[in-house]
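Q: Give me the 3D complex with 3-methyl-2-oxobutanoic acid.
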Amino acid sequence: MSTQQKEFKKVTTHVLQEMKDKGEKISMLTAYDFSMARIVDAAGIDVILVGDSASNVMAGHETTLPITLDQMIYHASSVVRGVDRALVTVDLPFGSYQGNSKEALVSTIRIMKESGAHAVKMEGGEEIIESVKRILTAGVPVMGHLGLTPQSIYKFGTYAVRATENEEAEKLIHDSKLLEDAGCFALVLEKIPADLAKRVAENLRIPVIGIGAGPHVDGQVLVVHDMLGINNEFKPRFLRKYANLHSVMTDAIKQYVIDVKGRDFPNEKELY
Ligand code: KIV
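A: Here is the predicted complex, encoded as structure tokens.
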């Protein structure tokens, strides 16, 4: 089958803009490896985020800060190999873009060349705008990320809701417009009041995708391990669990242990 004959349309930044313009909500989930990306993509997700949450979810770190550019490229290239339809966006990890715009571009080029991903995501507003512009000039789509930006956790000191005070809310509105004007194709808003997220989504032409930002935005994103209930320790109010894979997997593994120890596995049909 040639590429033109494939019956599904690949999701591009233009498709996402059309979705916002038509009022169709955008679905986004994280994935960090080939097998999960295959399932998530085949299920019809529009955007797959290779999030730096891989630092927590895959590597067991307390924050997103330790994950390296090489590790993000490894996760991203695994995901890209599993995807036919979704737009794959990759987080620029902490320390790979904050220094200056040249460093940001060099990191981005490594991600795009070595993983085959379609876009990058960066945390921050005015303070990273030069880097955003330089990356866009090189032809790489950029997704912004405001609100609770986990790479700044030691500045915030807490994972609590952001922008509840007027000053921070006004800065967020200002930064969201700067990111749109610079040319970002979409914006993630994390853990902010729903009314503020609504204001931003109405104020911007580009799609706004929320996590803990209420229903009045253009799409939703969750960490796939959280919504599948693989990780059963993380229970923020915004998280809806669609499965309890922690107990499904635990039960399956317990049964395997019983079968091996009881000499039930393998049986005569499972040998050569
Ligand atoms: O890294 C990540 O998973 C993210 C989402 C929470 C938006 O940035």
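A quick observation: The longest strand covers residues 142-147.
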